[in-house]
Amino acid sequence: MSLGLPSHLSRAANSRALATAARWAALVCLVMAAINVTVSTVGGTTGAASWISTIVLLPMIALLLLLSRGRTVLLTLVYLLVGAVCTFFYVFLIFDSTPAYQDTNLLVVALPVVAMTLVGGTGTGSLVGVLWATLGFALAETAVFFGATAAGRDFRPDAISLSAYLLLVGVLAFDGLTRGSRSRTQGAIHRAVRDARLVDLRRELLAESTADLHDTVLSELVAVAATEPGELPARLRQRIESDLHRIGGAGLPADDHALADEDPWYDGELRRAIEDARDEGIAVDVSGEWEAVALLTADARRAVGLAVRQCLVNVLRHSGSATAEVAFSCGEASVSVMVVDSGHGFAAGGGPGDRLGLRQSVHDRISKVGGTVTVYSAEDVGTTVIMTLPVAEAS
Questions:
Q1: What mean pLDDT is predicted for residues 276-288?
Q2: Is residue 66 very low, low, confident or very high in pLDDT (cuts 50, 70, 90)?
Q3: What does the buried/exposed string (b/e) look like for 148-172 if buried means 16 or more CB atoms within 10 Å of the residue's CB?
């Protein structure tokens, strides 16, 4: 079992889980042996020596509790040696106080043997676990043999302890044999997750590039269409060249030193969007705390600038209004930018034909920098787009 964990973690997790289960199972076996002897003594079917056989199990229980706090090779060896001595006296006292027991093929005898065998579950690997289990089983059976011989009883291998040994060895062997196949499966899963993540990253980059192309190309086409026939004005040519250069470098990491020298307002996308809209014939009024844009991160300033640019393009193309207002407000943890026009508007649930602009250039772009967008519009009333962005955290 890999438990859904990576292969380099599943081995340690499986070993810890098996070790914990083995220690608790061994502890249960010893407690059951003590309870069985105690009940037999209270019922009057055994002699007083049975009480002593219960006491000799206490060192094994104490050492198991110590193993549960931290396994070491030395502590495991001490547990096996002390367990062998305790098992010898336990078997001898059981037979000495119970004449009805004629051989060792008994549950009450098998319980400490199983507890000794289960020490193999505390190994750090399959082969090591099998070796510990074999050593524990051999020492326990040897102790049972000498204990029964000293009490004058016959030694017969019991099916319970032998079955527990074979089951534990089978579990450890299966874990070792299937570990390689689990590693290959986990590797395939990791590669699939990596490939899926790469697809998502490509999709995000494609969406961002599409939004950039949409914002710049559409804006420039509208500007070119609004100019008089003939040579383009120098300012418009410069703007187109600047946009083309920006498209070519979009997605490249920004130069931190260059950004530090820029003015967040005068050198940002937001003011450029307003000036471009004015060049295209829209009378744009700016009100409120426009200096608050300095509180935003560089990514947020660029995102809101391109989003405002798209909103103003929509005003020019769809609203039928020649005026618009860009208003700023600042709260404790956020900056809001509103684009308001008094044009045609659109009914709730509807919208202009340019759905790509509102979805990718406004909603998606603002949400990527942690902001929200709210649109209020009604026919013959106008449209208000409110973009709220979180301020940059103080470093």
A1: 86
A2: confident
A3: beebebebeebebbbebbeebbebb
